[in-house]
Write a structure and sequence with these properties.
Strand content: 25-35%
Mean pLDDT: 92
Low-confidence stretches: none
Oligomer: single chain
CATH class of the largest domain: Alpha Beta
Structural class: alpha/beta
CATH superfamily of the largest domain: Cell division protein FtsQ/DivIB
Largest sheet: 9 strands, mixed
CATH architecture of the largest domain: 3-Layer(aba) Sandwich
Number of helices: 5
C-alpha cells in the first residue's frame, strides 16, 4: 500500500516499442499524465484506452518494468491508401481507419481512393464504411507485395471493384469475394496480355479475360 502512494516506484520513463520515433512520441504524450505516478497505481486499462484511441495505433500491450519504467509495446496501423475528398487527403489503414491527413501529392506509392463530398466529412480515428471500405478491402492485400505495375487508384461500387494501374491497365475484380485469389490471378496473367490490352477481368478467377476496350 505504501508503494502505491510514495515515489519509490514513480514512473520516470515511458518506453515505447514497435513503432517509429514519431508514433512513439505520440504514445508518450498520451501517457504523460502517468509520469510521477507510482507504477502500482497506474491504471493500465485507462492507459490502454488512451493509446488505442490514437489514430495511428491498432493495438497496445503494457508492462510495469520496475522500478521506474512503464513499458508499452504497440502495433501501428498499416497504411494502404490515400483517400482524396476534394482538396483534402487522408491516409487510411488496412482496417479502414483514417490514420492522418496528408498533403496533396504526398505518399505517391500509395493508391488513391476518390470519395465524393456526399459521403460526409472524414475525421481522424474514424473507420470508413460502405463503398470506401470496399475499396480499402480490395487494395489491402497488395500492401507490401510486388505487382506488375503500381496501383494508382481504386474505384468501388456495391457490385464492382476496379483497380487502375500506372501502366493504364484496368483490373476488374467484380465483387469482394475471393479478392486475394483474383489479385493472384491478375499478377500472373498481366505479363501474358497482348500488347495494347486496356483491361483484365478476373471477376471469375478461373476464366480471366483481357481486351483492348
Amino acid at each position: 500500500m505504501g508503494a502505491r502512494e510514495t515515489s519509490v516506484f514513480a514512473v520516470e520513463e515511458i518506453r515505447v516499442e514497435g513503432a517509429s520515433p514519431a508514433i512513439a512520441s505520440e504514445v508518450g504524450r498520451a501517457l504523460s499524465a502517468s509520469r510521477g505516478t507510482s507504477l502500482l497505481a497506474v491504471d493500465l486499462a485507462e492507459s490502454h484506452a488512451a493509446v488505442v484511441a490514437l489514430p495511428t495505433i491498432a493495438a497496445a500491450r503494457f508492462d510495469r518494468a520496475f522500478p521506474h519504467t512503464l513499458a508499452v509495446t504497440v502495433v501501428a496501423e498499416r497504411p494502404v491508401a490515400v483517400i482524396r475528398q476534394g482538396a483534402d487527403a487522408f491516409v487510411v489503414s488496412a482496417r479502414g481507419r483514417i490514420i492522418r491527413s496528408a498533403k496533396r501529392g504526398a505518399l505517391p506509392s500509395l493508391p488513391r481512393i476518390w470519395v465524393p463530398r456526399s459521403v460526409g466529412a472524414l475525421a481522424l480515428g474514424t473507420t470508413v464504411t460502405d463503398d470506401v471500405r470496399t475499396a480499402v478491402t480490395a487494395i489491402s492485400p497488395l500492401a507490401g507485395r510486388r505487382f506488375p505495375s503500381r496501383v494508382v487508384s481504386v474505384a468501388a461500387t456495391p457490385d464492382e471493384l476496379t483497380l487502375r494501374l500506372r501502366s493504364g491497365l484496368e483490373i476488374r475484380l467484380g465483387d469482394t469475394a475471393n479478392v486475394e485469389l483474383k489479385l493472384l490471378v491478375a499478377r500472373r496473367v498481366i505479363p501474358r496480355l497482348q500488347p495494347g490490352s486496356r483491361y483484365l477481368d478476373v471477376s471469375v478467377p478461373d476464366r480471366p479475360v483481357g481486351g483492348a476496350q
